[in-house]
Amino acid sequence: MNKVVLICCIFWFPAAHAQNRIDSFDLFVLQKLQADRSESQTHAMRIISDANNYVNLAIPAGLFVSGLIDQNKEMRQNALYIVSSTASTAIATFVLKKIFKRPRPFLVHISLTPVYRPEEYSFPSGHTSSSFSTATALSKAYPKWYIIAPSFVWAGTVGYSRMYLGVHNPTDVAAGAALGIGTALGLSFLRP
User: Fold this and answer.
1) Around 124, how many Cα atoms within 13 Å sit in the side-chain half-sphere?
2) In three state form, how does the secondary structure of 163-181 look?
3) Which one of 63, 96, 132, 147 is most buried, by most CB atoms within 10 A?
């Protein structure tokens, strides 16, 4: 029995310590962002966050319509790749949120005040995962610097906005980015 307890302690204590360090990092970043909020930045971050879903739909829709008008099969197929990637990422995010059931940071740390109070769970960030999925798929479909740079600046800004607004931990955002990138890369076989 003592050996079992010893083995459990050997593995549990480092894991618990690592989790505490991650939670401390998340809290530190969110407190810093909250302390530095301004009315104009908050307004801008809310617009960016709210626009995310529209951007994720507009990009493949615009490509698809342009492909129909120009009779460009490759453009239509790229549109389907991007929308498939983003939709698959949204489904994976939904499933992971139900599995992990991580509460929003403002529910765990009462010192945090979000700009608004979304429902559902926190891990991973859905806004971030979808924006990074769209950015990655668009960049794979059109690998030009003038597509890649703005795509990832947009995705990064969306992720930042979720932390700035106080509705996601940095680790939620990092996991969302990794999920979005991974899904888009995994579905790259759908490209023409």
Assistant:
1) 23
2) HHCCCCCHHHHHHHHHHHH
3) 132
Write out the DSSP string of 83-107.
Answer: HHHHHHHHHHHHHHHHHH-PPPHHH
Token digits for 68? 């129909």
Q: Token pair for residue 12?
A: 């549990």
Angstrom distance (rounded) from CA 139 to CA 147: 6
Q: How many domains does the chain have?
A: 1
* Mean pLDDT of all residues in 152-176: 95
The rounded mean pLDDT for the chain is 89
Query: What pLDDT score was predicted for residue 22?
Result: 83
Distances (CA, A) of 162 to 1, 4, 113: 47, 42, 13
Q: Residues with Cβ < 8 Å from 179, sequence gap 6 or more?
A: 89, 92, 93, 96, 124, 129, 132, 133
Q: What is the pLDDT of residue 65?
A: 95
Q: State the CATH number of the domain containing residue 28.
A: 1.10.606.20
Residue environment code for 75-103, b if the CB has 16+ CB neighbours within 10 A, otherwise e: bbbbbbbbbbbbbbbbebbeebbeeeebe
Q: What proportions of the chain, in percent to the nearest 5, are helix, strand and coil?
A: 80, 0, 20
Structural domain including 135 reads 2-190
